[in-house]
Amino acid sequence: MNGELQLKLQSWLDGELPEREARRLAVWVAQNPAAQALVEELRMTKSLLAGNEPPLQVPESREFYWSKIERAIQRSEPVEEAREAIPWWAAWRRYLAPAAAVVLVAGVTLFTVKLIHPSDTDDASRFLDVVENLSEYTESFAFRSQTENMFVVWIHAKEQNQTSEPEADPVDDAFYQ
Amino acid sequence: MDLRTTRRRGFVGRWVTLGLVGLVTLQALAADLKLEAKLIWGTDDEKSPNPAHKPVDKETAEKLRKIFKWKHYFVVNRQVKNVPSRGSNRFDLSDKCTIEITELEGPRVEVMVIGEGKAVNKTTKNLSKGESFTIGGDDKNNSAWFVIITELDEKAPK
User: Fold this and answer.
1) Do the Cβ atoms of B55 and B76 come closer than 8 Å?
2) A156 inside 8 A of chain B by CB
3) Is the pLDDT of residue A171 over 60?
4) Residue B107, preceding peptide bond in cis (omega within 30° of 0)
5) Which contiguous run of DSSP H or E holds residue A142?
């Protein structure tokens, strides 16, 4: 008798087989002495277990035992609610680290680019003071007073050439008024 | 997620936020240049014909006297403005005198003197704190005009 058949006999004894299959199996058992022996052995084991299985006693009462489970469930629920109640700005904090990294990389890149390619301006010209006359009627000169820490650009009327025609001097009027 | 992990993430988040705020603040501070422009009249007369003109402060007067020949100096107008980074701002100091200041990379400034609507002079220079950048010229009746530009520390009202 193979294992599958033995399991089927066990199911038949436990009343788990459909009615039609149970009838066919009962006929077969009646004709098969080995099967009858096995069925008898299984019946005996079942009756022994049913009569002698030790009862499992829970230390608490049934109500108290289930109330503990209920309280545990209730304790876990506020955590879920609190998680859902996180404001939107707090949720955005998770993006701060990558955003800061992006800003840092951009900053370092810009700084590096500036170091490698300072600008179109020549380095020396960065420290030069450049004074340009934009009017044909004026001239200017510049000087620095180290003691007074003052840089001065002085604008004055251009001396008119005697041969040229006299023209209006824009700085002739009071400039401060 | 356990409590320790949550705390650690909160700690990192606070520092990152602080860093970002710092960066933004630095950027904002670097953005504007606060400048003061004073139009001053230099003369040998003890009093200005315009009673609204007040004598310049003692320190400035001393400085000017040590460099220039005039004995008395009066403030005609004073303006404090922000010059935005890589931008310009105009200081209308009188009907005839306007200066336009542009902030350049460096930090450098380009100061254009405009007299009666016409560009007269353009000076490009590094601006350092504590230094007075003075543009001046002769005026009628043996007097002179001066525009003193100084960089201020605080931020100017926009």
Assistant:
1) no
2) yes
3) no
4) yes
5) strand A138-145
Inter-chain residue contact A157 with B138, CB threshold 8 Å: yes
Q: Which two tokens stand for residue B127?
A: 């601006």
Amino acid, res. A132: E
A86/B contact by beta carbon, under 8 A: no
> How far A40 CA lies from chain B's nearest CA (Å)?
57
Shortest CB distance from B140 goes to which of A93, A150, A174? A174
What the block records as the tokens of A167 is 């023209």
Question: Which pTM does this prediction carry?
Answer: 0.53
Which residue of chain B is at minimal alpha-carbon distance from A145?
B67
- CB–CB contacts below 8 A, A to B: 138
Cβ distance B89 to B101 under 8 Å?
yes
Q: How confident is the model at residue B98 (pLDDT cuts 50, 70, 90)?
A: very high
pLDDT digits (tens, 9 = 90+) for B6-26: 666 666 666 666 666 665 555
Q: Examine the predicted complex and report whether its ipTM is higher than 0.85.
A: no
The whole-angstrom separation of Cα A32 and Cα A27 is: 9
**Cβ contact A34:A5 at 8 Å:** no
Which whole-number Å values give the CA distances from B105 to A101, A108, A172, in the listed order?
27, 19, 35
Q: Can you read off the two tokens belonging to residue B80?
A: 């404090």
pLDDT digits (tens, 9 = 90+) for B105-158: 877 899 999 998 899 999 999 888 788 899 999 988 889 999 999 988 755 444
CB pair distance less than 8 Å for B95 and A156: no
Closest CA to B6 of A93, A136, A144, A177: A93
Phi first, then psi, for residue A158 (nearest 5°) are -70, 140
